[in-house]
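Follow-up to my post from last week.
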Amino acid sequence: MITAGIDFGAKNVKVVILDDEKIVARGSALTGFDLKIAVKDASEMALKAAGLKLDEITHITETGIGQGSVAFAADSVSEVGANAKAGVKLLPSARTIIDVGAEEARAVKCDESGSMEDFVVNERCAAGAGAFVEAMARALEVELGQMGPMSLKATEAVPMNAQCTVFAESEVVSLIHAQTPKANIARAIHDAIAERVISMVRRLGITEDVLLVGGLAYDVGYVDSMKRGLGVEVHVPELPEYVSAYGAALVAQERAKE
Amino acid sequence: MTEMKYQTKPLDIWNEGKALRQQYYENYAKAHEKGGIRWAGGAWAYSAVPAGLGDDVWSLTGEPYGASVAFNKEFAARCQEAIEAKGFARDLCAYLRNYLGSVVLDEYVFGGKFPKPDFMWTTHICCSHAKWYQIASDLEGGVPYFCIDVSTGLIEDFNERRREYVVNQLLDGIDWLEQTTGRDYDDQKLIQAVYNECEATSLWAEICALNRTIPAPLDEKTMYSLYVFGTIIKHRPEIVDFYRKLRDEVQERVDNKIAAVGNEQRRVITDTQPPWGFLEIFRYLETFGVVSVGSLYTFSLIGAWEVKDDGTWGPRTTPQEQGIDITTRKQALEVLADWTHARPEWQHFYSAQKKSDMMLRIVREWKVDGVMLHYNRGCEGLSLNIAENRLAFKDAGIPVLPFEGNMGDEREFDLERTKKAVDSFLELLGVK
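User reply:
Got it. Predicted complex:
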């Protein structure tokens, strides 16, 4: 049975198409201002890759910030619900799944079946999410993709006290003026954002195994900060930004059978 | 919308309540036209005390007024901008900012100019209240102001010495009221007001206790419109009469299984003030058969409770039911102080553990499936300890949803993001 999951992220819309539980295609497009265009682009990319037409998909489930904007979606699931479902499928021993996207961080505690037991989400401040790293990369004048490898070359831990992106940026500028090596500043940025997310996740209690998903999981410097901060192994799946869409597609499989 | 399981209908008494509330705000605004007196103060103030000045003494309590302003989003935004332009910080109590903004704009949310009070009478219950009315007094040209310190701690610690501390202030306050208004004080009116307040607040607890029933006869959004009388004129006979009739109607709904929410399948509670401009969250929950059956706030901001012989919460036995004959001013004030300081919501200010314990009691006795906790940026006092409360529910295995917002400032509430968090909570409750 063919199903699909659509994840409306703050930065990208992601689509995953499944044949039973096997991923057959993915698609992604910048969210932009018009969600409908982004969904169309991401869906067409995935359908083309799968060699399918929209009406060949039995059930579509959506998740993320723009729920309700896709006329062809049958229903929806929360991101934490989708993450729990997909996380356990990707790593059966996963019990804590942390998702850090462009503007939100969230975590879910789940059982072996991928059912949610508890969850936390960050509130209105995006200082603990990917947008923070993007802003800091701009301040450091480095490409976003360089932040991770650069951070791993740090020789010294530099404390960064600001919690707010705006104040943190001025702190970064001060560190630059103090001629602090960029690598050390990059690590300070990753440590700061990891601390924010970890303090949120600790409200759930850390139950291993821990799986880190979402766009920021591509950043090796951030993953390293999370490992050091949590004091446990942090697993990262392939293509971590598609995990919520994958979870939504898995939920679609279950609901199509009901 | 999930399947209807129970019969439902609106409250018969609804319009009477609406008219009573409207009358209250009108009575205050038009008091001078009939030779009456107006006073302003907090909803926690000892409102029965100024009643000794006469039956034509009307009050405007600031928190319900601030909530009414919040409900009118356009006016609320203007109030907040007006008071912030005067240098008041955005992180102050949202009710205070709405109230003071209304004063600065000289606009009454119910129409016309802001009705200036003849005096301020309040208690210093939290970090905002005493300053609130001191500032209001200044803004309104030096309105006479009297504030009672009520920082006496938990009810367990409310010994004779602490009670005397409060009662002596109230006795001084009565002298001040006489001097300020030029009226003679009538102790018989005070005594009757104390009896009324005890009965009204005990009746409200009785009404809330009826909500233990499945299906719940009342939902919390409706309760907000009903508990409010206890925050504005709880000492007046018309409120006692209203709550008696409401109690009888709610009992009838219980007897006939008439539900507030016909598709009830899960029951939740909240903790403190809601984001008043976004009560639609409750209706959203109801589409999934989730009914909020109350909160520590709606039950006990005004409700008077006691532990009954079977160990459960029930309406507090009133002085008149106990056969206490109040004969003097001092005795009336002592009874009132004992009654007031025992209300559960007062304890909330002093102890995280006590708040958790009281809410866990409600969870057990009201058969609650989940709890929503409002990180209310608009009220520091009642948002204290929410992180600890969350842990207490987590330890007890109760699904809990903390959400961030503001009771009176819509700029600090994100409806879409909150709905998303609610969706996750609904999945956790197994209804979505």
